[in-house]
């Protein structure tokens, strides 16, 4: 009779398809009201000899069923793990999903290219705050109080908070002012970054980017300025014999000052860069005004230097054929996919600026 029970329970154990079913079998056989337990309870009514024999049989049966349950439990656990490993398997050799890769904005790429070129010439990158005070943005740069040049910049002033009038920098020049106030010459820095002017039309956005440069040393002269900018423009536009023209100009912070044109041709509505007789304005520059040096704590009888500035959107549009300035800041992913750069295309002088 116990043999029949054993066969029945063992077949139930082997038929249990999951841990819950197996537990049910265990309760039916070995639980408080289980069938084996029931027989155990009947032992008390037997004679001592019968009780010993029947007790040994029941204990053996109990052990065998418990062992079968444990074995089945291990089988189920192994099968469960195997199923998960099959279902959750990942193929690490598959290529990266292309849609997860973003694009580098043309402004960032252009800044990276310029940094690569100037780094090669020994310039460091300097940064400063977007929110500035009147001294660092205007006064130190030789804009006298009430001078019309201050109006030219269409400054965004912040709501009054305290005695100091704060504003959004109208150029990155305050970065150079801060560098001169904090470091002794020789100085050789570029300052790329955001700038702000209250202006919005086809060719102006209220936020735009500039890169400015500053070199201060004891004998830095106009020849260094010209050589530096000629080398920069030829590298940036990738035209070896690109002609440059320096036209006299005026800025409050430089004297003498010049605007720089590069050679081009506009025949047939197409713009080509090179020695074609036509000219295109590209940047401004000059020798740092002695008043600026003195305002920034530098002895103008001992040191002199040059500075330059250019708009990044403008040269990016030129170099990459982007027709409309305003699209730079519309955050249109289709535009970014078209004009953006792949992240691994990192500009460097050794590997090429941008492929
Ligand atoms: C210090 C001293 C001198 C920076 C310079 C220009 C000429 C210039 C414009 C180009 C187009 C700005 O983006 S734009 O509108 N900039 O023409 N910038 S010299 O001169 C400095 C700067 C800082 C202390």
Relevant terms:
2 domains; alpha+beta; 355 residues; eight-stranded mixed sheet; 12 helices; binds ligand 2U9; two-stranded antiparallel sheet; BirA Bifunctional Protein, domain 2; Phe_tRNA_ligase_alpha1_bac; elongated
* CATH architectural grouping of the largest domain: 2-Layer Sandwich
Mean pLDDT: 92
Q: How large a portion of the residues is in β-strands, by DSSP E? A: 15-25%
DSSP helix fraction: 40-55%
CATH class of the largest domain: Alpha Beta
N-to-C order of helices and strands? HHHHHEEHHEHEEHEEEEHEHH
Tell me the Rg in angstroms: 40 Å
Looking at this structure, what is the CATH superfamily of the largest domain? Answer: Bira Bifunctional Protein, Domain 2
Net shape = elongated
Secondary-structure-based class equals: alpha+beta
- Topology-level CATH name of the largest domain: BirA Bifunctional Protein, domain 2
Ends apart, CA distance between termini: 87 Å
Number of domains: 2
Low-pLDDT ranges: none
Q: How many strands, which pairing sense, and closed or not: the largest β-sheet?
A: 8 strands, mixed
Ligand names: ligand 2U9
Question: How many helical elements?
Answer: 12
β-strand number? 10
């Amino acid at each position: 009779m116990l043999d029949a029970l054993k066969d029945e329970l063992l077949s139930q154990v082997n038929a249990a398809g999951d841990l819950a079913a197996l537990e049910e079998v265990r309760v039916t056989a070995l639980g408080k009201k289980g069938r084996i337990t029931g027989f155990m309870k009947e032992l008390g009514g037997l004679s001592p000899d019968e009780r010993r024999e029947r007790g040994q049989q029941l204990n053996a049966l109990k052990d065998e069923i418990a062992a079968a349950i444990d074995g089945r439990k291990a089988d189920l656990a192994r099968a469960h793990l195997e199923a998960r490993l099959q279902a959750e398997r990942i193929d690490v050799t598959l290529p990266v999903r292309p849609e997860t890769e973003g694009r580098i904005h043309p402004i960032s790429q252009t800044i990276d290219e310029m940094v690569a070129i100037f780094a090669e010439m020994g310039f460091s990158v300097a940064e400063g705050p977007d929110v500035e005070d009147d001294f660092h943005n205007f006064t130190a740069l030789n804009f006298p109080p009430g001078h019309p040049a201050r109006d030219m910049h269409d400054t965004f002033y912040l709501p009054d908070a305290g005695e100091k009038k704060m504003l959004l920098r109208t150029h990155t020049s305050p970065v150079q002012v801060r560098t001169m106030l904090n470091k002794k010459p020789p100085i050789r820095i570029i300052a790329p970054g955001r700038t702000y002017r209250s202006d919005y039309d086809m060719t102006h956005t209220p936020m735009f980017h500039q890169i400015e440069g500053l070199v201060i040393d004891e004998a830095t002269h106009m020849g260094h300025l010209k050589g530096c900018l000629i080398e920069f423009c030829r590298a940036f536009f990738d035209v070896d014999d690109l002609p440059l023209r320096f036209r006299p100009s005026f800025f409050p912070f430089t004297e003498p000052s010049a605007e720089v044109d590069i050679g081009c041709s506009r025949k047939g509505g197409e713009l080509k860069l090179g020695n074609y007789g036509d000219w295109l304005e590209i940047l401004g520059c000059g020798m740092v005004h002695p008043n600026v040096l003195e305002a920034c704590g530098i002895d103008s009888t001992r040191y002199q230097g040059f500075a330059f500035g250019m708009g990044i959107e403008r040269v990016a549009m030129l170099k990459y054929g982007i027709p409309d300035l305003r699209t730079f800041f519309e955050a249109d992913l289709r535009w970014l996919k078209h004009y953006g750069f792949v992240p691994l295309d990192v500009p460097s002088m050794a590997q090429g600026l941008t492929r």
